[in-house]
Predict the 3D structure of the following.
Amino acid sequence: MWYLDSGCSKHMTGDASQLINLEWKPAGFVTYGDNNRGRILGVGDIGSGNKVIIKDVLLVEGLKHSLLSISQLRDRGYKITFEPEQCIIADSNSTEIVLVGKRVRNVYMLNVSSIIPSMNYLLSRDDESWLWHRRLAYIHMHHLNRIASKDLVIGLPKLKFERNKLCEACQKGKQTKSSFKPINVVSTTRPLELLHIDLFGPSRTKSLGGNYYGLVIVDDYSRFTWTLFITTKDNAYLAFKKFAKVIQNEKECRISTIKSDHGGEFQNERFDKFCEKHGIKHNFSTPRTPKQNEVVERKNRSLEELARTL
């Protein structure tokens, strides 16, 4: 139980369990009416969950009663009405009832549990604005205010839709990704120094050789492209192994690095052992970021569009 005290200059309690958002920090002392002092251990709020009703409540060591300062409630914008049997604390701006206390003998007391219904009431009003925001296809709050003021929608209540509210769905739907700037300078100095590899398929139409997939290999230095048609994804390793042997003999130089995505056809034990045996460095692009491997991804899109037209 909390006591409403006109002689108390600050909200205070000795029970830490009564507070939320409690910040433990020594902040001096409070002096009682008998000139004794209590040490301030921290500052917290009164409320439930993320909803705060009363802020800046002192946690005082050894205090046996929980006190609410009437002067502090008035400074926070609350209107306090004392009646013979009860005390009503309302928001002076909206006149909504926030807290209700009762008179016990000669003092007014407040049960913390009475905070919960009033908070749920305020939350339901708050949720109603979000409900209409979703009903009207996530319309902007500014337009909702205009619609409500002109009675353009039947059943739309006369609510004040705050413009500064953030909708999680709207944020995700309207956010944009940073674009990758094209690199116009070739960073390699010879053929086969870096090969970009990727797989496309399955294509809608089977090739004459009975293949549905294509392994695309692009040389970073010359941008020359090889396309190896394969039956299944599992054949990507065997196709690349055969290609590496042939192309290195043909060009009389070694493959230094290959770059691919994290597809299972490239990131597996057989590929790892092959690269380790022949001294080839295998780099991977960041997951779900195909633009990091744009050199071969662009070729892939062109080949996939061509396969669709067949």
In short: Residues 116-126 have pLDDT under 50 and may be disordered.
